[in-house]
């Protein structure tokens, strides 16, 4: 897991956003991280975004949840499954946590809220480039509730592959601990002080939590589909 | 009694046709017995000592003379003959029935005489009599029996079949007859006494179960009535009328108390009706004691009344059982079916509509008594079991009641909570008008002020303040489920930690004792706005390197401190910090506290207030 300060190269970045002004704002925010405007591609629909992802395989894709020809969540899910190397970050206006949670479960490693100041967005994207992910207390609480609702089975050798996968998706003690702190509003620095970990490590843990969330969602979906006879 | 008259006519006709049969019946051999059915009868006065010379008429036994000589109270002589073979052996003689008292002569010799042959008459009719006859009273060839019967026309006077023959066989007949007519009644009396006594004691110990008492009373009266079949002496009465009248009174009293027993058994009280019936029973008793000459001869009226009462009670109870089935009702109803069937036959026998020498009621009545006893005992056992299970039942019922109560209270609590939420939401909507809306209008006013040209940065700052306020409103409104202050502060704390960090301000938070604290959405919003404005001031104006936010809840007090190490200001020259301070004061006031501002230039700023946790009225 790339969580130890080595930056992920942001040399090909895609913005999927239909609003021109937001496109410009995001490009401006990204410029600091990617260096050149040439590294930033813009798509304004799901269809064009898929084409561009397939052709240029970007390192990072910022995906608006509300797109004219489809759902950003679907695009995030598609990218996660077909281009696993592309990191996706969801964009939403006020960040209703249902939508954010859905994005995380689709495979996004974070979310940006348009309401935030540019500086905050830059800080968030820096965190993503370091290999981490962003989280806030409401999302942490929702993830905790979600995890508690679907208890994991105890490990046994005869466990089905699917159940094993689910087991892999179980949060570690450290991860739950971090989520608990986040839910109480502690900053990453405070959590780092409390746990004795570096704040970058904590951002890595967050990313790992999101990954597990996505895995859980997928296996849950497969499980449900199988139980309904669709697979 | 027209039926009886009609039957009497029929009887007379029969005896007329049977006239030729009156002859000397022979005993053919030692082992044989013969029933003497042909006889001659002649009426006589109470003082008759010898058979009358004239007035003999042939009769067929069993003979009731009231149909032949109505209203004849006194003596009737019966003459019977049989032919005895001359083998010199003794014979047995069985006088099965003679009502009421009699004297027996064989070939002119007195063999037997009841103690009372005039009123009050002995009650010989209750049991058969066996005699062993030998020479010299017994003769070879023709023998003559003279039976002097004293009777009263009202009480079925007459003579039953007389049997002579082999002594062992006649004795066996006598014993059987005695058992059927006499022994069974004794048995009946004993069973009744035992059960009656048992339930009487039970009633003494449990007065609230009055049906035990009525059952015992009914059994007592029933026993007094049964004395009719087992007491041979007229004592203590001076007439048969008194005895019979009283007997009927017992019968009626037994039927009434039995009816009341059944009513009580199903838990019914017909007070007026019951009192009426009891008064009627008492009147019959008084009538028998003081006017025996009326009560006795007209006893059939009382008998019918009693029988009707019995039938009504029993049929009523059976009907009730079919309507409201219960295990013990079935047992009792079944035990009542026996007497219904048998008593119909006995009543007809009693009223001489059919003839027979025995009333079956006596044989079956122990069964009935036992059946009723079973029902009572069953009920007693059920009550006992219930008493034993009372604790368990009580616990279960209390448990059920508690659960129901909890549910109800839970529901009501939920409703109350819902109402509170709706109220809060309405308040929040109002706040959007007054608070956020007001800020918006203020911002527009400021930006439109023609005297001051606004810098774009200032416009952005105003808009961002509005945005932050809207964020707070959204967080407070959409996360109602986070009702405790700890959860409600977390988003603000997180956001501002990031912001302050981005501005190189080290923020330290100390939030304690708020995990269970529920201030209500409006006051929470007020507190969050206070914190946001205070932190905005720190971010914009203080140039602090450190800020410490402390929110402690202890002993019904909420204390809030925001302390920075920034530039500080002169508190009285409030305008140096913009319009922020009055707004902060107003918010603290709305939380029920007064804001304490400690600041001096170069020494940082300390805002603090202590608010009560309970909302101010």
Automatic annotation (TrEMBL), chain A:
The keyword Nucleotide-binding does not apply. It holds the Pfam family GerE. CDD domains: LuxR_C_like, REC_NarL-like. The keyword Ligase does not apply. Gene3D superfamilies: 3.40.50.2300. Keywords: DNA-binding, Phosphoprotein, Transcription, Transcription regulation. The modification 4-aspartylphosphate is found at residue 64. Residues 12-129 form the Response regulatory domain. Residues 164-229 form the HTH luxR-type domain. PANTHER family: NITRATE_NITRITE RESPONSE REGULATOR PROTEIN NARP, TWO-COMPONENT RESPONSE REGULATOR. This is Response regulator transcription factor. It comes from Dyella mobilis. The lineage of its organism: Bacteria, Pseudomonadati, Pseudomonadota, Gammaproteobacteria, Lysobacterales.
TrEMBL record, chain B:
Keywords: Kinase, Membrane, Signal, Transferase, Transmembrane, Transmembrane helix, Two-component regulatory system. SUPFAM superfamilies: ATPase domain of HSP90 chaperone/DNA topoisomerase II/histidine kinase, Galactose-binding domain-like. SMART domains: HATPase_c (SM00387). Residues 1-23 form the signal peptide. Coiled coil: none annotated. InterPro entries: Galactose-bd-like_sf, HATPase_C_sf, HATPase_dom, His_kinase_dom, Sensor_HK_TwoCompSys. Residues 526-615 form the Histidine kinase domain. GO terms for molecular function: kinase activity. This is Histidine kinase.
């Amino acid at each position: 897991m790339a969580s130890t300060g080595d930056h992920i190269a942001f040399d090909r970045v895609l913005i999927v956003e239909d609003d021109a002004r937001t496109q410009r704002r995001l490009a401006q925010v990204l410029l600091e991280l990617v260096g050149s405007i040439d590294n930033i591609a813009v798509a304004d629909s799901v269809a064009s975004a898929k084409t561009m992802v397939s052709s240029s395989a970007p390192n990072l894709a910022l995906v608006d949840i509300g797109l004219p020809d489809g759902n950003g969540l679907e695009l995030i899910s598609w990218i996660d499954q077909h281009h696993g190397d592309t990191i996706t970050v969801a964009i939403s206006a006020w960040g209703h946590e249902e939508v954010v949670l859905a994005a995380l479960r689709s495979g996004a490693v974070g979310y940006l809220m348009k309401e935030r100041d540019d500086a905050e967005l830059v800080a968030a994207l820096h965190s993503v480039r370091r290999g981490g992910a962003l989280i806030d207390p409401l999302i942490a609480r929702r993830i905790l509730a979600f995890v508690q609702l679907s208890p994991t089975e105890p490990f046994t050798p005869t466990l089905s592959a699917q159940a094993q996968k689910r087991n892999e998706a179980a949060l570690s003690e450290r991860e739950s601990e971090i989520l608990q702190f986040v839910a109480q509003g502690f900053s990453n620095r405070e959590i780092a002080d409390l746990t004795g970990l570096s704040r970058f490590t904590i951002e890595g843990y967050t990313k790992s939590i999101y990954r597990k969330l996505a895995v859980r969602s997928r296996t849950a979906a497969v499980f449900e589909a199988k139980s309904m006879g669709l697979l | 009694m027209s039926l009886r008259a009609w039957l009497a006519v029929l009887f007379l006709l029969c005896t007329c046709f049977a006239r030729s049969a009156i002859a000397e019946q022979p005993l053919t051999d030692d082992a044989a017995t013969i029933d003497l059915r042909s006889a001659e009868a002649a009426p006589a006065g109470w003082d008759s000592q010898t058979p009358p010379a004239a007035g003999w008429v042939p009769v067929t036994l069993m003979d009731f003379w009231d149909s032949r000589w109505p209203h004849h109270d006194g003596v009737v002589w019966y003459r019977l003959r049989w032919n005895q073979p001359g083998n010199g052996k003794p014979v047995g003689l069985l006088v099965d029935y003679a009502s009421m008292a009699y004297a027996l002569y064989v070939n002119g010799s007195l063999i037997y005489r009841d103690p009372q042959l005039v009123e009050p008459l002995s009650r010989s009719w209750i049991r058969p009599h066996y005699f062993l006859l030998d020479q010299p009273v017994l003769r070879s060839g023709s023998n003559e029996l003279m039976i002097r019967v004293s009777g009263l026309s009202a009480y079925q006077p007459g003579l039953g079949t007389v049997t002579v023959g082999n002594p062992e066989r006649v004795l066996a007949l006598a014993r059987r007859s005695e058992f059927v007519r006499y022994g069974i009644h004794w048995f009946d009396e004993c069973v009744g006494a035992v059960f009656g006594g048992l339930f009487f004691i039970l009633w003494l110990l449990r007065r609230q179960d009055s049906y035990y008492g009525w059952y015992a009373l009914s059994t007592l009266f029933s026993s007094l009535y049964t004395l009719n079949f087992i007491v041979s002496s007229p004592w203590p009465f001076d007439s048969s009328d008194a005895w019979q009248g009283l007997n009927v009174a017992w019968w009626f009293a037994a039927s009434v108390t039995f009816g009341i027993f059944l009513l009580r058994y199903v838990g019914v009280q017909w007070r007026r009706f019951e009192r009426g019936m009891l008064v009627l029973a008492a009147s019959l008793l008084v009538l028998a004691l003081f006017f025996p000459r009326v009560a006795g001869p007209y006893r059939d009226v009382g008998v019918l009344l009693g029988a009707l009462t019995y039938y009504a009670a029993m049929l009523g109870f059976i009907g009730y059982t079919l309507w409201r089935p219960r295990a013990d009702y079935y047992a009792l109803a079944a035990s009542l079916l026996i007497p219904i069937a048998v008593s119909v036959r006995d009543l007809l026998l009693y009223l001489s509509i059919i003839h027979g020498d025995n009333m079956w009621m006596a044989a079956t009545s122990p069964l009935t008594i036992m059946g009723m006893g079973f029902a009572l005992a069953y009920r007693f056992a059920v009550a006992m079991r219930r008493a034993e299970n009372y604790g368990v039942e009580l616990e279960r019922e209390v448990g059920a009641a508690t659960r129901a109560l909890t549910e109800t209270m839970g529901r009501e609590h939920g409703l109350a909570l819902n109402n509170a939420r709706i109220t809060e939401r309405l308040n929040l909507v109002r706040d959007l008008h007054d608070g956020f809306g007001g800020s918006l209008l203020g911002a527009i006013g400021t930006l439109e002020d023609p005297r001051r040209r606004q810098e774009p940065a200032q416009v952005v700052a105003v808009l961002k303040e509005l945005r932050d306020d809207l964020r707070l409103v959204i967080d407070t409104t959409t996360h109602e489920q986070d009702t405790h202050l700890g959860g409600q502060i977390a988003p603000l704390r997180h956001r501002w930690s990031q912001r302050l960090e981005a501005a190189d301000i080290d923020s330290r938070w100390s939030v304690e004792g708020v995990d269970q604290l529920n201030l209500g959405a409006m006051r929470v919003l007020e507190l969050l706005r206070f914190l946001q404005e205070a932190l905005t001031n720190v971010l914009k104006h203080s140039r602090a390197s450190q800020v410490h936010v402390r929110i402690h809840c202890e002993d019904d007090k909420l204390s809030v401190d925001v302390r920075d190490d920034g530039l500080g200001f002169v508190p009285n020259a409030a305008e140096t910090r913009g319009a922020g301070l009055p707004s902060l004061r107003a918010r603290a006031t709305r939380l029920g506290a007064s804001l304490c501002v400690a600041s001096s230039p170069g020494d940082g700023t300390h805002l603090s207030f202590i608010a009560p946790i309970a909302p101010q009225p």
